Amino acid sequence: MDQTAAAGSPAVVDCEQLVAVIGDAVIVSDPAGAITLWNAAAERMFGFTAGEAMGKSLDIIIPERQRQRHWDGYEKTMATGETRYGHDLLRVPAVHKDGHSLSIAFTVALLRGTDGGVSGIVAVVRDETARWTEERKLRRRLTELEAAAG
User: Fold this and answer.
1) Distance CA 42, CA 25 (A)
2) I need a labelling partner for 67 at 20 to 30 A (CA). Which of 8, 32, 135, 145 fits?
3) String of b and e for 34-58 (b: at least 16 CB within 10 Å)?
4) What's the mean pLDDT when you consider all of the chain?
């Protein structure tokens, strides 16, 4: 397929290639919460290969203490076909395959079938663990300085 575009005309984008090479994790799950797409960045971020993740529940990356809240929201989204997080950046804890905690930020969008019904949810995820850890250190230091000054 010709990927060049004439001046003024839109470029053709190979979406499969885009998802494969993008630096952020791209995860798609079906209406039941089973993973149907897991790109290379998701492999690096969470430690599960695509083969290990495909068909599994999103529970593989959701900390146990967060699961009930997650699934309550997920089921409501599937039932209503609406998400209140369509444009908001969500920041939540996650878990790596080896058990260590991650701090992730992501956006979600609903995928719809030809009938208009929700066929899945896509999340574009970024690992913000380093940023979150640094902010936590800075907040702790600020608290110490305010206590020393007061």
Assistant:
1) 4
2) 135
3) ebbbbbbbbbebbbbeeeebeeeeb
4) 91
